[in-house]
Amino acid sequence: MLFPVVEGVEFNSLTVSLILAVFFVAGLAKGAIGFGLPIIAISLLSSFIPVSVGLALNVIPPVILNVWQATHKASLASNAKRIWPVLLGLAAGIALTTQIITGVPPQLILGMVGVVILLFCINSRWGMQLTVPKNREKPYGLLTGLICGIMGGLTTVSVPPFLAFLVTLGLNKDEFVSTLGLYFVFASICLIAAFSFVGLLNATFIPFALACTAVAGLGMWCGFKIRNRLDQKKFYNAVLVMMALISLNLIRRAVF
Question: Is the pLDDT of residue 93 over 50?
Fold first, then answer.
């Protein structure tokens, strides 16, 4: 046995292989479409390991893999100044929800993850957007961050509300991507701190989480190659269909 038993999960060679395969697939999707690592990973991992274990394994990889995105072709300080209310609300929401996550029934978490993913797919496919007046940007940003934090604290999937908010700011393409990267990094750091505090992330998980990061990084590299060779719109639509099916399955498992 390479890893100890954690929350009833025996990390034998089969379980380890399945987990690494999930992170490769999730990294592949992220490399091809630019996002989706936590969404896909949590959806698939919850099929064969407890949700809390999947959450713990899923908080370190995004930090390492998104640092480049936050610093690429844009000013980190300028982005932070623009979205600090979102980041403040995000930290508060995560801190609140991770205090109760260990007492939340797994079925409820599965259902919430499924609903979040389904809403994300609908938003991505049909392009529904929030309209935020300029003079309301900061309070709306704080509210958006709080909602993101609550979702992220329970599922590690927090970005859909922020994506909807971000498109209202009128950023150019490079600013949009780097600001999204800053959000991803900050959200992941908050989750690591919060999960460590409540005992969901400890030294047992760190080596394996780093291994998952390496495999996801390899998947991202392969995803870059796929994106360069295939029609992006068709591939993106295929990924959304797959994610929607996964979300419906999670909702089914939560209800039945």
Answer: yes
| Residue 111 located in a structural domain | yes
Asked if residue 240 is part of any domain, the answer here is yes
**Half-sphere exposure (Cβ direction) of 124: Cα atoms closer than 13 Å:** 21
160-215, pLDDT tens digit by residue? 788 778 777 767 666 777 788 888 888 878 877 777 776 766 677 788 889 999 99
pLDDT score at 14: 87
Query: What residues make up the domain containing 246?
Result: 6-255
CA distance 163 to 144: 10
- Over the range 59-73, which residues count as b (16 or more CB within 10 Å of their CB) and which as e? bbbbbbbbeebbeee
Comparing C-alpha atoms, which of 215, 156, 205, 195 is closest to residue 9?
A: 205
Q: Which helix (H) or strand (E) holds 252?
A: helix 232-255
Q: What is the mean pLDDT of residues 212-224?
A: 91
Residue 1 lies in a domain: no
CA distance 183 to 76: 11
Domain count, the chain: 1
What type of residue is 75?
S
Q: How confident is the model at residue 22 (pLDDT cuts 50, 70, 90)?
A: very high
- The helix or strand, by DSSP H or E, that contains position 16, with its residue range, turns out to be helix 13-33
- The number of C-alpha atoms within 13 Å of 104 and in the hemisphere containing its C-beta is 20
Q: Looking at per-residue confidence, does 124 or 184 come out higher? A: 184
d(CA 1, CA 140): 49
Residue 74 lies in a domain: yes
For residue 85, which amino acid is it?
Answer: P
